[in-house]
Structures are given as structure tokens and as C-alpha cells.
Design brief:
Blueprint (H helix, E strand, L loop, with lengths): L2 H16 L22 H6 L14 E7 L5 E7 L1 H5 L3 E6 L25 E2 L5 E8 L2 H8 L3 E6 L6 H4 L17 E11 L2 H7 L2 E9 L11 E7 L2 E6 L4 H11 L9 E3 L18 H13 L3 E4 L9 E2 L3 E9 L5 E11 L10 H6 L4 E9 L6 E2 L5 H19 L3 H8 L7 H10 L7 H13 L1 H4 L13 E10 L8 E7 L6 E4 L9 H13 L6 E4 L16 H25 L22 E4 L2 E4 L6 E3 H4 L10 H4 L3 E5 L14 E4 L5 E3 L8 E10 L6 E11 L6 H20 L31 E6 L16 H5 L4 H9 L5 E2 L3 H9 L1
Parallel strand pairs: 1-12, 8-31, 10-11, 13-17, 15-16, 20-21, 29-30
Antiparallel strand pairs: 1-5, 2-4, 2-6, 3-5, 7-16, 7-26, 8-14, 9-10, 9-12, 14-15, 18-28, 19-20, 19-25, 22-23, 23-24, 26-27, 28-29
């Protein structure tokens, strides 16, 4: 039996129990309710919340890594004697330590089974060669400066197009001796017949653009703590994937049983993919584990703020587009090519969004990854340029070429997998979804909010009384709805008071997801919201869908729903069954002669449907007397509902979209889900033609989330995502010196992240069409806005000055360069 069949059987089993207690509209009290108090609200607002960086244990020591001062260099010799004798230093772990496992080779490269000795660094600032443990972080930092290293400095390359040329310096000759283009990370996206599509076009346009490097930094630096309790490891992680941490530790140390490993996942100071997706993200734990065992003390490893900059978004590179279209605005073909840098986890194509939610019939793209001497790039806040930026620029370039409103172009080309909206509506009907035009609804709300029809004008034609040029920008795409993932949730009734605890260890990155899960559970159980609590930082062996994609609410919503329904069924079984006896007392059923189907629960009170006066509180059901009998199965035994995948019967697998990836697995067909919900974003800007400054004076973000569960969480994702997106599109870029290969702005002063003073009003609008695949028709919103908004500055500035940006982020210097044209 394959995994897909297992998943279908599991889902049928879950639904067979869950369908006994469908959640009807009249029973919804908390889902979609505004002003629900956040579970983490008081702790975070008061400053009492503990993040991984805040954790301090008795006897704890601090570890820091030696880093390379060069972009490409090999250690020829290293003398650590002065560092070892420095007061307060407890240990110096070297790359040549015999106990160091291959995964923690300190060789300055991706973990490998055969680490190169001596170690090699492939970018300036890379952790290489030594790990110093001391009484304080400051002492460890001072000791690092005493390590004497003889380096062999090698040639380096920073630019992807230069790296792709024959004869370019090899960025990593150990891994890629034949050139900097990684053949294993070259992939193609093919749909239809690109030559036919271009031949059918009335017009063809070409454009090129480049994307600078956005880093993955957050408020909290990468860090972690490792402690041994005898032979049992205990970890505190700043990590989106605590379950993978647990598995890794078990593997490192010869298969330590998972039940002997304890993971703590405190609050996360922003975690948007990034570091969590790096193979070296456990490197600090590798090294700390060895030193902790030798010294018998907990070790906290920490990166400096600058070290947190050495890695970023997988979008840095150069992109070439050819777009064919009819004179009426219908796009017939998209052809694209990209050379991107250091894609450590190449999971997104550059034209996937065109396939997923347009009627464009012919698509072709090739993406190549070039190794350069910078840090590794992985998905951070999702796929900004592959997809979102390409999508925005292509549609707006067509609109400009035809002199048409870009909103009209969007509506004209909306669809899915090369088919129009009529085809998509037929599939909505087959799947039982309402027939609503999500994009039209989002656009209507957004246009009204920003005053689009009154303010829209031809490019470069409106100068304001303050002397600045006025511009409007628009973009759109589908709402996030990944089609896979797993989640585990456990729920149990607490003894004596009848409240419910949810267990599901997960990284809380601040999106208020835990409160949303409590809202779902409370409505499904019929409990008061204050009687449901999520203990998300506890390692009880259950791990939710990790917050590294936008499917979390969909997948965890299903696990929460089904676990709640299973628990509700068990509660009603206990309420109608024998309650056991003690030596002195026999307890009759709470509802003698009744069946579970004759009862229901509301406001944490069990009652008979036909006679609501016949009722019993949950506290009375599981109070001290009731807990003497079989009720322990409710009071003490978690009811687990795990999901191996979501809604497989609704999965749609396209027969002709090839995602050819040049690795051993060859060509495979990607299964996707039909995208039914849309998002639309509008931006109003003023451009100062003397300074090149772009002022964002109004921003509208509209998301069709199917069904809002938690308004604060959803609107917070929109509002925060808009700031992130504006920063990435306007100011955020890691700069390297071309001559030395050294990072120049690895700090929060020169790497400019916008604040509330840098952006005008941001209006957040949520549309509810019920066309999501999650419970109650919900869909994901995480990553949406932060991913789509960065490119929106391009059409807005174009509308203001009449020149297309071809370099991002669109800094004042680049705007002035455009104005010179």
C-alpha cells in the first residue's frame, strides 16, 4: 500500500468519526469572531515572553564560531593555544577534533560525509575551523580574536552572469570542479508549445531585470542550547522544524531513542524559512553537544548580528522574459530564463504562478543556479521573484504595451492551467464549491479602497502640487494553498475542572496561529474558548505542520477539527456509559439510558438535545468523584488525530505540466491543487524626481482567505507582510565589495528595514468566498503579502515616471538612473 492510499484511508477513518458531529453555522461562536484575546498576547505585550535567546540555565556556557575574513580561502594552519589559555575560556573545539561528526566538520561548507581537511570557506564570514566555549559571549568573542590562522586566499566570483561564463573563477571547486553552473539544480518548466504560442501572438515584448540579495535576518539571532541529562539530550531551539531537530539528534548519536530526546521550542523572534532550511542550521547543536558532554554543562551557541546576514532569499539573479499576446490583451505565451545564485533549496520555478492561475496556454522556462562566493540562498518569506515578481512585471508590461488598465488584463487572463474561468467554474461545481469570482471580488474591494478609477492615469502624466510625480500600481495572483503536509494534534480533558489542553509542539513565529486552533477546537467541542488552551512549546511527541509554508492553518485546522470531534465523541460516550465504582461508592451513568447521539455540548455543558434542562457541566463530569472510574480515558488519555495529507479526493493532478528537474529522479509530474481563491494589491506612490525617493502614501492589500478564523492573525499577516514587502522592494539589499568580496552592510543601520514612519496608511481587506480547501472553506494567508508586494513598486513607479525599473530593490539611486533615461 503506497503513502497516498494510506492517506486516503486515514482521511476516510477520520471523517467517519468527524462526520458524526458536523459544525453547523448555528454552532459557530468563535471562528471568525473579532477581538478574541491572543493566547500569547499578555506575555508578548508585557515583555514576559521568553524567546530562545532569552533562555538562561544554571551553569550555562556560551559558544561562538571562528569566521572567515575572506570570500574564498583554505586554512593552512591554525594555532588555538592563546585562545585556550584566555581567562574564562572552557574549551576550543577544532575542525580536526576526532570526536566531531562529519555533519559538524567545521569545514566551512555544506555538511558532507567526507569533509575536506584542512577546512575551506566559500564566503566571507562563514563559520570555519573552530568553536570557542566560554563563561560569557564576550569572553568567547575576545578569545576568537586570539586564534592565529594562516589562510590560503583563493580567487572568488560574486556576480551570477560572470560566474556562468567559461573560465570564471570557481566559487566551490570541491563541489563543482567543472564550472559554477550546478547541473543538478538546473530545471525546466514546460506547458503547451512555446513556439506555437509565440506564433499565435499579435505582439511580442522582451524585458530583463535583476534582483539583489535580500537577507533572512529577523529580530532574534540564530541560537540554541544543548544539555545532556545523563544519556538523554535536551535542546532549546530557534527552529521552525522541531521534529526534524529531534530526528537529527537521534541520528547523530547512534540512534538515541526519540523518547529520550526532549525538544523545547520557545517563542521565535521571526522565522520565515531561511536559516531553518539550511543543512548547517543544526551545526551549533552538533558542536555544543560534544562540548556539553565533556564539560557536563549546558552550552548556548549564538551567531552575531552580522553572521545572521550571511544567507538570504533564493531570488538573487538575472531574469529574461519574452511575452506574446493578442491585441485584445490575451496572453498566448510566456518564455523565461533565469540565472540565480546559490540556491540551496531550489523548490520554486519562475513561471509556476502563470500555470496555476491563468489561462495562458503556452509556457516555457529554464532556471540555472550559479555558485558564487556569498552565503547560501533558500526560500525566505516564500518565492518573491520566482513567480511573484515575474508575474507582476509580465502582466504590467503587457498592459503598458497595449495602453490598457492592468486590472483589465488580469481579469481577462484569469483562469487555471491554461483554461479560462468557465472551465474553472465547472470544476468548482464538481468539487462542491460556490461559484464566485474571487479575483473580481478582490479587485472591486481594492479599487474602491484606493480610488483607482478616479486616480488612474497614463504613465508619467501627473505631477502633484508638491512637485512629486504620482503613480499607481496593481498586482494579483492566487491565494496560497500548498497541497501537502502533515500535522499531529493531541487533545485531552484535564481532570477535576473539565478544561481541554491541546498538545502540538510548533514554532510560534507570532502569527497568532495557536489562538486560531483554540477557536476551531472550542467550536467543534462546544466548549467555551477560555476552557481550551494550546501548549505549543511542549514536546509531548506531537508535532504540528511546521510554519515553513502557508498550508499550516489548512492542515493543522483539519487535525484540530478531527481531534476535537474524536474527543467530543469520547466525552459523550463516557457521559452515557457506566462510570465505574470505588470500594465505597458506585457511580451510575451521568445520562442513564441515553446514547451519545442524543446529547450535545454547548458552553462546556453537556445536555440532552430533547430536554436541555437535563445537563451536566464538564467540570462535574470529570470532577474528583467522576475521575475515579473509566473517565480516566478522557481525563488522562490524549485523543490523537493525525493527518498524512489533506483532501486527497479533491486533489487535481494536471496531466501535461512538466517540472523537469535534472537530478537522478528525472522528469516528474507535479500534482497541484486547483487555485480558487485570489489576492490583489494596490499601491499609491509619490516619486521625488530630484532625490529619487519613493514615498508609499497608501497601500491596499486584499486577500480571499475563504473563511476568516482569527481576524487579528489574518490582518496581522497582511499588515506585517506589506511592510516586509515594501522593504524588500524598495531598500533591503545586502551589498558586497566587488574587490574584496566582503559584506559591507551586515547591520540594521545600513541594511534598511522600513518602520511605521517609512510607509503611509496600509488598509487590510479580507474577502470570504468559502472556496478554500481547509475546514469551513478556509485557506492560507501566510507569506502571501510579503512575497507579492515587493514587485508592486515597479508598476507604481513606472506609472509615476514612465520608465520601467530593471534592477531591484528600487533604491533612490536606481530611480535617479531611470530618470536619466
Amino acid at each position: 500500500m503506497d503513502n497516498l492510499e494510506k492517506a486516503r484511508m486515514q482521511e476516510q477513518f477520520d471523517n467517519s468519526r468527524a462526520d458524526k458531529y458536523p459544525l453547523t453555522e448555528d454552532k459557530i461562536n468563535y471562528i471568525g469572531k473579532r477581538e478574541v484575546r491572543r493566547i500569547d498576547g499578555y506575555d508578548k505585550a508585557s515583555g514576559a515572553a521568553k524567546y530562545t535567546l532569552d533562555i538562561s540555565l544554571p551553569g550555562m556556557l556560551y559558544g561562538r564560531f571562528l569566521t572567515s575574513p575572506y570570500p574564498h580561502a583554505k586554512i593552512l594552519s591554525m594555532d588555538t593555544s592563546q585562545a585556550e589559555s584566555y581567562p574564562g575560556v572552557r574549551a576550543v573545539l577544532r575542525y580536526d577534533d576526532p570526536e566531531l561528526p562529519a555533519e559538524a566538520d567545521l569545514g566551512g561548507h555544506e555538511p558532507s560525509s567526507v569533509p575536506p581537511l584542512p577546512p575551506i570557506a566559500y564566503f566571507q564570514g562563514q563559520e570555519t575551523g573552530a568553536f570557542v566555549v566560554a563563561d560569557t559571549e564576550e569572553i568567547a568573542e575576545n578569545a576568537l580574536k586570539l586564534i592565529q590562522v594562516q589562510w590560503e586566499v583563493r580567487p572568488f566570483v560574486l556576480d551570477p552572469e560572470e560566474a556562468a561564463q567559461p573560465g570564471a573563477p570557481l566559487a566551490n571547486p570541491e563541489a563543482s570542479p567543472d564550472g559554477n553552473i550546478e547541473q543538478q539544480s538546473t530545471y525546466y518548466e514546460k506547458f503547451g508549445d512555446i513556439e506555437k504560442g509565440l506564433a499565435e501572438a499579435d505582439r511580442i515584448i522582451d524585458f530583463r531585470f535583476s534582483q539583489g540579495l535580500n537577507t533572512w535576518i529577523g529580530p532574534e539571532r540564530p541560537c540554541g542550547i544543548f544539555r545532556w541529562n545523563g544519556e538523554s539530550p535536551e535542546l532549546w531551539v530557534k527552529q521552525q522544524r522541531p521534529h526534524i531537530c529531534k530526528r537529527s539528534v537521534s541520528t547523530w548519536f547512534g540512534g538515541i531513542p526519540m523518547n529520550k530526546i526532549e525538544i523545547h521550542c520557545p517563542y521565535q523572534g521571526a522565522s520565515f524559512g531561511g536559516w531553518s532550511q539550511m543543512p548547517w542550521n543544526m551545526g551549533g547543536h552538533f558542536c555544543s553537544a560534544i562540548v556539553s558532554r565533556r564539560l557536563g554543562r549546558p552550552i548556548k551557541w549564538i551567531f552575531s548580528r552580522r553572521e545572521d546576514f550571511y544567507g538570504g532569499q533564493m531570488d538573487e539573479g538575472v531574469y529574461y522574459f519574452k511575452v506574446g499576446f493578442k491585441n485584445n490583451g490575451l496572453i498566448t505565451a510566456i518564455q523565461a530564463r533565469a540565472i540565480v545564485t546559490n540556491q540551496n533549496l531550489p523548490v520554486f520555478g519562475i513561471v509556476t504562478h502563470f500555470f496555476e492561475n491563468t489561462r495562458i496556454p503556452h509556457i516555457y522556462a529554464k532556471t540555472e543556479t550559479a555558485k558564487v562566493n556569498k552565503g547560501p540562498n533558500v526560500p525566505v518569506r516564500c518565492e518573491q521573484v520566482p513567480n511573484a515578481t515575474c508575474f507582476t512585471l509580465a502582466f504590467n508590461h503587457v498592459a503598458e504595451a497595449l495602453g490598457m488598465d492592468p486590472v483589465r488584463i488580469a481579469l481577462l487572463n484569469d483562469g487555471a492551467e491554461g483554461y479560462d474561468m468557465q472551465w474553472l467554474n465547472e470544476h468548482k461545481q464538481k468539487m462542491g464549491f460556490p461559484l464566485r469570482d474571487s479575483l473580481q471580488e478582490c479587485i472591486t474591494r481594492g479599487k474602491q479602497a484606493i480610488g483607482w478609477d478616479a486616480k488612474w492615469h497614463a504613465p508619467g502624466t501627473r505631477r502633484l502640487p508638491n512637485g512629486k510625480m504620482h503613480g499607481l500600481g496593481f498586482t494579483w495572483t492566487h491565494e496560497w494553498d500548498d497541497s501537502g503536509g502533515t500535522g499531529e494534534i493531541a487533545m485531552y480533558v484535564e481532570r477535576n475542572d473539565g478544561t481541554v489542553t491541546i498538545l502540538g509542539c510548533r514554532a510560534d513565529c507570532g502569527q497568532n496561529g495557536e489562538t486560531a486552533y483554540c477557536q476551531i477546537a472550542a467550536d467543534e467541542l462546544g466548549f467555551r474558548l477560555e476552557d481550551v488552551h494550546f501548549r505549543n512549546q511542549i514536546d509531548a511527541g506531537f508535532f504540528t505542520m511546521t510554519p515553513d509554508t502557508s498550508t499550516n492553518l489548512v492542515i493543522n485546522g483539519f487535525t484540530t477539527r478531527n481531534a476535537a470531534r474524536a474527543l467530543k465523541h469520547r466525552i459523550l460516550e463516557v457521559a452515557t456509559g457506566p462510570r465505574g465504582k470505588t470500594q465505597l461508592t458506585e457511580f451510575p451513568p451521568a445520562f442513564p439510558g441515553k446514547t451519545p447521539e442524543e446529547l450535545d455540548i454547548k458552553d462546556s455543558v453537556i445536555f440532552e438535545k430533547a430536554n436541555p434542562a437535563n445537563r451536566l457541566t464538564m467540570a462535574d463530569l470529570v470532577g474528583p468523584s467522576g475521575a475515579q472510574g473509566p473517565l480516566n480515558s478522557v481525563a488522562g488519555e490524549p485523543v490523537l488525530s493525525g493527518k498524512w495529507g489533506i483532501n486527497y479526493p479533491l486533489r487535481h493532478t494536471p496531466p501535461i505540466f512538466e517540472y523537469a528537474w535534472q537530478v537522478q529522479r528525472g522528469t516528474f509530474v507535479v500534482g497541484t491543487r486547483l487555485r480558487l481563491c485570489r489576492q490583489a494589491h494596490f499601491m499609491e506612490v509619490e516619486v521625488d524626481t530630484e532625490t529619487g525617493e519613493v514615498d508609499i502614501i497608501h497601500m491596499i492589500t486584499v486577500n480571499d482567505v475563504g473563511k476568516v478564523v482569527n481576524w487579528d492573525g489574518a490582518e496581522g499577516q497582511q499588515y506585517g507582510g506589506a511592510y516586509m514587502g515594501i522593504g524588500r522592494g524598495r531598500t533591503e539589499e545586502v551589498i558586497y565589495d566587488k574587490k574584496s568580496g566582503v559584506m559591507l552592510n551586515g547591520n540594521l543601520l545600513n541594511y534598511k528595514i522600513p518602520t511605521v514612519l517609512d510607509v503611509g496608511p496600509i488598509d487590510t481587506i479580507l474577502v470570504e468566498t468559502g472556496m478554500g480547501y481547509g475546514p469551513n472553506g478556509m485557506i492560507g494567508i501566510g507569506e502571501d503579502v510579503a512575497t507579492v508586494v515587493p514587485a508592486l513598486i515597479a508598476p507604481a513607479v513606472f506609472n509615476a515616471i514612465g520608465q520601467w525599473a530593471d534592477e531591484f530593490p528600487l533604491t533612490p539611486a536606481r530611480v535617479l538612473k531611470l530618470l536619466e533615461k
